[in-house]
Design a protein that fits this description.
The complex is a heterodimer of chains A (452) and B (365).
Chain A (H helix, E strand, L loop, with lengths): L3 E2 L9 E3 L23 H4 L5 H8 L4 E3 L2 H7 L7 E3 L1 H7 L4 E6 L10 H13 L4 E6 L3 H12 L3 E7 H6 L1 H9 L3 E5 L5 H9 L7 H13 L4 E4 L5 H20 L6 E5 L4 H15 L7 E7 L4 H4 L1 E6 L8 E6 L21 H8 L4 E5 L1 H15 L5 H20 L4 E6 L7 H8 L6 E2 L2 H7 L8
Parallel strand pairs in A: 5-15, 6-7, 6-9, 7-8, 10-11, 10-15, 11-14
Antiparallel strand pairs in A: 1-4, 2-3, 4-5, 12-13
Chain B lengths: L2 E6 L5 H4 L9 H6 L6 H12 L6 E5 L5 H6 L5 E5 L7 H13 L4 E6 L1 H11 L5 E5 L13 H9 L3 E10 L1 H5 L5 E11 L1 H4 L11 H15 L5 E4 L3 H10 L9 E4 L2 E4 L4 H10 L4 E4 L7 E3 L8 H7 L4 E4 L2 H6 L2 E4 L4 H6 L3 E7 L2 E9 L2
Helix pairs in contact in B: 3-7, 5-6, 10-11, 12-13
Classes of the chains: A alpha/beta (452), B alpha/beta (365).
């Protein structure tokens, strides 16, 4: 009974897969925040290296992964694909559950899949310092690790509520030589503006993005790096899905359902885009692709598909995506990495077109699922990951009812070893089931000014 | 050095054990039925714990209303600032509290039930925070610690201040089998929820006022034109009125249309007529009292008939995260089981700007 499906280091993908090549029509372009005209490469060159800008807009089906990046990937890739025999048994489901374990990376999550190439391209472009933000700390630690590899300095603006909640994430960044600042901070104009309005704010990813973008734009040696949402980030994460497809093929399997949790959408993109591509070109028309988001921040299930800013202050280009509004500060739930008002434009487009679908869950039910998973498979997942776990368990339980032997694949994005306080809250009954009051908002939407 | 005004209602709770459903005006009858005073013992538990805090001083009444209990617990750092008559009355409670405040009390710690809470609040108002050691027959008011030891725990550490409704049951009606509560006021009470949490795991809204403003900001954003909004009693609904720039009846029910008050302190008849005239009306209420009643307590003007006119699905429940932490379940007891069972097993409670919490509802049977 094989449990781990492993690939050789030589089988680390040599190319990323770009789903833009297989979209039936091009994506709606990002718009300049002031002029509302489509942005060109020049608009982005103040904060991104040219190669990443090229990757952002390319419609080539494959993009080469530099050998220097694959060399670093050898530290943890290819990551294992597990057959969750014990979970299947615990659930008494006829479904076959597979999970891709991305927690094996040095930073403990899938985020290094893009932080490494991003740091690499910035180093190649002669950049000396990276400014970035982090929600739960996963991305901040992944970027700190990657910048260290290429001798870049790194400043991380960490959402204040997480900074207080997860002090060890900050410690990790320190070990890898990065500077971690709670956001909003007094270092930037956008941070100062938020603090002036509201000194006690818990902060939000949108605010931290504004700070990092401002920092990068105002220092010529500094670039910005984003850990999710953008097309090039989703592109880099496709190593996950590409490996999965190989691993499953080695046991003669192909998923009926592909599941990932969704904050900005990059891990979900990573595991699902290769399969979405198969679906778009008609190779596997029936594959069901499911994004799982928190009920408190349900952009895909309750948001509006429209142009919106990526950050709170409105510095970023306007992107066509599912959004709850860039001024929305999601409640301080434990899955801090999913607290984002919008979603990847590509993921949004695919959900809008019906290629993918989404569900939302309350936090107590996802922790319940994480507990089931930990007691069956051993791994204690991050609160973000527990959403994907919940999605997979519910699919497996549905199979139990129908008797279907579906093959379920989900992205197990990271460990929860720094999130024990969240588990403590779960056990003490102090988890609040936040949700988004969409009915009241939808009724009144006609009166809320549209962004475009 | 914190100064605590300390007061015991010696007869509180006596009616309960002998089936009198409250002791107001019935102390002698209770005694004749064999009831034993228990408030003194309850207060003693709190005092024994407070004794260990060196810098607390007490202001007290003489005799059974305070001095005797303090002495029994071996507390010497107190001053008697009010002399009670032999059988203490509601007037005694109020006079004593006034004397405590005049002498600089930072907080009134009292031992009793809803009746005592009413009397203490009548004198203290919102000037000085109050905290109840539970010893009464009825304790619907949100001013009591969960038990005598918890009351000491609250005072042992730094605490914030929050709102607590003072509600009381009409005892005459209660004895006749009808539960009719009234909202008497909104006291300032120590915020003790944070104290009982094992650790501060999530960055919570530090400030309850801020939470109210965020709720109000959201509600005002989603208010529809040509729609009647019935605002229930309390300071959370008051924040909505403040944001609209209108004056709310704190303890009453107001009706708002297009940002203007169309009926202040409205009675059931007015609400029925308004909701009949304007279809699509909404009711906005906040849980009242320690049990977290969203209907049926404190805002009786919003009667089953009014709710029927509006529809259960159009009731918008709002509450601060602080309030929700203290009330694991909400209660609905509108007076009409058909209305109560019209609610789902859980309800969405607006708790911030575009933020809600899902809370279980306990429906009266």
């Amino acid at each position: 009974m094989q449990t781990k499906i492993l690939l050789d280091e030589e089988q680390i993908p040599k190319k990323w897969y770009n789903v833009q090549a297989d979209l039936p029509s091009p994506l709606d372009p990002p718009l300049h925040p002031q002029t509302h005209k489509p942005v060109g490469p020049a608009d982005l060159s103040a904060i991104f290296p040219m190669e990443l800008i090229r990757q952002e807009v390319t419609t080539d089906r494959y993009v080469d992964i530099p050998e220097e990046v694959r060399e670093v990937f050898r530290l943890y890739r290819p990551s294992p694909l597990y057959r969750a025999h014990r979970l299947e048994k615990a659930l008494k489901t006829p479904a076959k559950i597979y999970y891709k374990w991305e927690g094996v990376s040095p930073a403990g999550s899938h985020k290094t899949n893009t932080s490494i190439p991003q740091a690499y391209y910035n180093m190649k472009a002669g950049i000396e310092r990276i400014a970035t933000e982090t929600g739960a700390g996963q991305w901040g630690s992944a970027m700190s690790f990657a910048t260290m590899l290429y001798d870049l300095e790194c400043t991380v603006y960490m959402v204040r509520s997480s900074y207080t909640q997860k002090p060890y994430r900050k410690s990790m960044m320190q070990v890898w030589g990065a500077e971690c600042i709670p956001s909003p901070s007094t270092k930037t104009k956008s941070g100062q503006a938020v603090l002036a309005k509201d000194p006690d704010t818990p902060g939000a990813l949108g605010i931290a993005i504004s700070e990092a973008v401002e920092d990068a734009a105002s220092h010529s040696n500094t670039n910005y790096a984003l850990g999710s949402v953008l097309n090039h980030v989703c592109l880099h994460q496709t190593v996950i899905g590409l490996e999965c497809r190989e691993q499953l093929a080695s046991v003669d399997a192909y998923p009926d359902v592909v599941i990932g949790c969704v904050g900005g959408g990059s891990n979900f993109a990573g595991i699902s885009f290769p399969f979405a591509g198969d679906k778009l070109v008609g190779k596997h028309k029936d594959v069901d692709i499911l994004g799982v988001e928190p009920a408190s921040c349900p952009s895909l299930t309750k948001g509006l598909y429209t142009y919106d800013f990526g950050d709170e202050a409105g510095y970023t280009p306007l992107m066509k995506m599912f959004t709850l509004g860039h001024d929305f500060v999601p409640p301080s739930m434990h899955a801090g990495g999913l607290r984002y008002h919008g979603d990847s434009p590509i993921v949004s487009r695919l959900v809008h077109d019906g290629v993918m679908r989404a569900v939302a869950y309350h936090q107590s039910e996802v922790f319940e699922a994480a507990q089931t998973f930990a007691r069956a498979e051993g791994i204690i997942v991050a609160p973000e990951t527990s959403h994907a776990v919940k999605g997979a368990i519910d699919e497996a339980l549905a199979c139990k009812k129908t008797g279907e032997e579906k093959t379920i694949l989900f992205n197990c994005t990271g460990h929860g070893n720094f999130d024990m306080s969240a588990y403590d809250a779960f056990y003490s009954g102090n988890l609040v089931d936040y949700e988004y009051p969409d009915k009241l908002i939808k009724e009144a939407l006609g009166r809320i000014p549209k962004i475009t | 050095m914190p100064v605590i005004g300390f007061l015991v209602n010696p007869v509180a709770g006596m009616g309960g054990s002998v089936g009198l459903k409250g002791t107001d005006g019935k102390a002698n009858e209770a005694r004749l039925l064999g009831a034993v005073p228990r408030a003194k013992n309850r207060a003693g538990i709190t005092l024994a714990l407070l004794k260990k805090i060196p810098d607390l001083t007490f202001l007290s009444s003489g005799g059974e209303m305070g001095k005797a209990v303090l002495e029994q617990c071996g507390i010497s750092r107190y001053r008697v600032v009010y002399a009670a008559r032999s059988e203490s009355t509601a007037e005694d409670t109020q006079e004593a509290v006034r004397a405590f405040i005049a002498q600089g009390a930072d907080l009134i710690l009292f031992c009793g039930g809803d009746g005592t809470a009413r009397d203490v609040f009548a004198a203290a108002g919102r000037e000085v925070p109050i905290l109840g050691i539970p010893a009464g027959v009825k304790m619907y008011s949100a001013v009591f610690a969960v038990d005598p030891a918890a009351a000491a725990g609250v005072l042992a550490g730094p605490y914030g201040i929050t709102d607590g409704e003072v509600v009381d049951v009409d005892e005459t009606a209660y004895r006749a089998g009808t539960l009719a509560t009234r909202l008497y006021g909104i006291a300032r009470v120590p915020a003790w929820a944070g104290m009982t949490q094992p650790a501060k795991q999530v960055f919570e809204e530090a400030d309850e006022e801020r939470a109210k403003e965020e709720i109000a900001r959201f509600i005002v954003e989603v208010m529809l034109p040509d729609t009647i909004y019935i605002l229930g009693a309390g300071t959370t609904t008051e924040a909505i009125a403040r944001r609209l720039g209108i004056k709310k009846t704190l303890l009453g029910v107001d009706a708002v249309l297009d940002g203007k008050i169309v009926a202040a302190d409205a009675d059931e008849k007015t609400l029925l007529s308004l909701t009949g005239k304007y279809p699509g009306a909404r009711i906005i209420v906040s849980p009242i009292g320690a049990q977290g009643f969203i209907l049926g307590r404190g805002s009786q003007q919003i009667s089953p008939a009014v709710v029927q006119n509006v529809g259960v699905s159009q009731v918008i429940v709002i509450a601060t995260p602080h309030k929700l932490r203290e009330t694991p379940e909400l209660y609905v007891d509108s007076g009409d089981p058909k209305i109560d069972t019209g609610f789902d097993a859980s309800v969405q409670v607006i708790s911030g700007y575009r933020i809600a919490q899902r809370k279980k509802i306990h429906r009266a049977l």
